[in-house]
Automatic annotation (TrEMBL):
<protein>
    <recommendedName>
        <fullName>Phosphoribosylpyrophosphate synthetase</fullName>
    </recommendedName>
</protein>
Length: 100
């Protein structure tokens, strides 16, 4: 895995490398609204993880997950951690927690 200084830098490079979809957490799955794609935990793998800690601003605490589906589609999920973390479904927590 690469080392990035900023979230922006990571997202820009991941996009260049084919991680072009943007995912959000929806109950028990990841959702990409731009392509109407929904992936449950068994349908994708997390290929890279990058954690960013805002030294002066807690809003900058985030984790970027590079994700690839079994069909070869690629995208990213940006998730807050700490007090800003999203409530998640148990299966999704297990999948993401392994990589935190």
């Amino acid at each position: 895995m690469k080392i990035y200084d900023t979230l922006y830098e990571a997202l820009k490079d991941l996009n260049k490398r084919g991680y072009t979809l943007n995912f959000n957490i929806k109950n028990d799955h990841l959702a990409c609204q731009e392509k109407d794609i929904y992936w449950h935990p068994e349908e994708y793998e997390i290929t890279e993880v990058y954690r960013f800690e805002g030294m002066t601003d807690p809003d900058e605490q985030s984790i970027v997950y590079a994700i690839e589906s079994k069909d070869g589609d690629r995208g990213v999920l940006i998730s807050a951690y700490g007090i800003y973390a999203d409530p998640l479904n148990d299966d999704l927590v297990k999948k993401l927690h392994i990589h935190r």
